[in-house]
Specification:
Length: 326
């Protein structure tokens, strides 16, 4: 190999045209999924204090929002529902006229070309805020599977293009796959939150979705942050059960896990840049402490460089504009 002065690596960095020509990692708007929150009622657009620029929408306004998202070239959204009524078993999650089910129908009518993914979990729907059925102070894994399957099936019946279980119960991908296949939805894909960590980065989301646990925490079912080998076991299990896409969540604090999953499995890989990542950048940008556009593009590039094919991000709207300009 040549050495300096014959070797000058700076030669290909001298201007933007050269840098673009040899750029190894590119983020495209087609890689992005935009998360949206839906509430019951009409004409509602509620700001989320800890996530400036993000809102809870009623279905009528969400349909208009979806149209503008599609015009930006963003190919997909993922929906999170907040019902008016909650109970111990999250019955509004799988009610045929629940908040998500009605939103699916409204959005698909307005923008049929937009890929509509639904989060499948019970935490937003339960009175206790946990992701499943609580028995004797603990989440009962196997009883929860039945309700998750009902929820996923109700989403598919309403018109969802893809379902995304985020609960981290053992066996839920298999249970959902069987429920979908048994009702004629063999072609509905599952994007599994395969390695979802018990992270402190979820705080703003829990405000937005009104899903903070009323007792304890989620450490008994979400992954322990120090573990990365375990993430590979979780991903392997979800693939074996029928997942079509696997996900690592959060993204930035777990770039090493994204890379390990990418190197270990030849499956489509998503990464969720979560509410805490968004809120930190927004807060710093509002103080003038950093260049928001450059930071966001750098973050998304890092996630893509680590190995993600798909990025779920609250910055999808802004990124679509910034990437188009760049």
């Amino acid at each position: 190999m040549s050495e300096f002065p014959e070797l000058r690596l700076r030669r290909l960095r001298r201007n933007e045209a050269l840098r673009a020509l040899v750029r190894e990692t590119r983020v495209d708007v087609g890689d992005l999924i935009y998360p949206l929150f839906v509430v019951e009622g009409t004409k509602k657009k509620q700001p989320i204090a800890s996530m400036p620029g993000q809102y809870r929408f009623s279905s009528d306004l969400l349909s208009k929002e979806a149209e503008s998202i599609a015009r930006l070239g963003i190919p997909a959204i993922i929906l999170f529902g907040i019902p008016q009524r909650k109970d111990e078993v999250g019955s509004q999650a799988y009610h045929p006229r629940g908040v998500i089910q009605q939103a699916i129908k409204a959005i698909k009518k307005a923008t049929p070309e937009l890929l509509l993914i639904t989060d499948v979990c019970l935490c937003e729907y339960t009175s206790h805020g946990h992701c499943g059925v609580v028995v004797d102070g603990d989440v009962d894994n196997d009883k929860t599977l039945k309700l998750l399957s009902r929820t996923a099936l109700s989403h598919a019946q309403a018109g969802a293009d893809m379902v995304a279980p985020s609960d981290m119960m053992d066996g839920r991908v298999k249970a959902i796959r069987e429920a979908l296949d048994g009702d004629g939805f063999q072609n509905t894909p599952i994007m599994a939150y395969a390695a979802k960590y018990a992270s402190a980065f979820y705080g703003p989301f829990r405000e937005a979705a009104e899903s903070t646990p009323q007792f304890g925490d989620r450490c008994s079912y979400q992954m322990d942050p120090p573990n990365s080998r375990e993430a590979l076991r979780e991903v392997e299990q979800d693939i074996a059960e029928g997942a079509d896409i696997v996900m690592v969540k959060p993204a930035l604090p777990y770039l090493d896990v994204i890379r390990k999953v990418r190197d270990s499995f030849n499956y489509p890989l998503a990464a969720y840049s979560v509410s805490g990542e968004y809120a930190m950048v927004k807060a710093a940008a509002q103080q003038g402490w950093l260049d928001e556009k450059r930071i966001v593009v750098e973050m998304l590039t890092a996630i893509k460089r680590a190995g993600a094919d798909i990025i779920i991000t609250y910055y999808a709207r802004e990124a679509a504009r910034w990437l188009a300009v760049d």
